[in-house]
Design a protein that fits this description.
The chain has a domain at about 5-85: Translation Initiation Factor IF3. It contains three helices and six strands; from the N terminus they run αβαβαββββ. The strands form two sheets. The chain has a four-stranded mixed beta sheet, sandwiched between helices. By secondary structure, the protein is an alpha+beta fold.
């Protein structure tokens, strides 16, 4: 599966906030690193990998990771590489404009709307924030001053 430039841009945007899940040490890409990367790709589909090799061996390590896991390289930024591999069962990531997958479940029932909090209360049990007269028969207060009531 090859990804287009637009898809690559979407993956970069999604991967921006991710942290490196796998780290390749000085030994390079070993069987253990490939197994850990494959498992992380199966779990998350989009992962960041940190590579500790020097500049000359870094690209070789990136290519070995991509070939060993059959993943697509979405981005290479310094010592970090963003890898993408779509799951065979229950893929999570879909690109814009892509039709829904046949295995997607039908939308379930809608949840009831949450109750609004902080709505002003009206009536005899209204508190001082309700905008009504304060409890205890005190006069309403505005801007720190009591309102003057003209005696008739």
């Amino acid at each position: 599966m090859t990804i287009t430039g637009k898809q690559r841009r979407q993956l970069r945007a999604l991967g921006h906030h991710l942290h490196a899940v796998v780290q390749v040490g000085g030994d390079g890409v070993t069987e253990g690193v490939l197994a850990a990367t494959s498992q992380a790709l199966e779990d998350h589909e989009l992962i960041k990998v940190r590579i500790a090799d020097e500049r000359e061996g870094r690209q070789a390590a990136i290519d070995a990771l991509a070939q060993g896991t059959r993943a697509e390289i979405a981005q290479v930024l310094g010592r970090t590489v963003l890898l993408f591999k779509r799951r065979k069962k229950n893929p999570e990531l879909r690109f814009d404009g892509e039709p829904p997958l046949a295995k997607d479940p039908a939308p379930g029932p809608k949840r009831p709307a949450p109750k609004k909090r902080g709505a002003p209360k009206k009536g005899p049990h209204a508190g001082p924030r309700a905008g009504g007269p304060k409890a205890g028969g005190q006069e309403p207060v505005r801007a720190g001053r009591r309102l003057r009531r003209d005696a008739e």
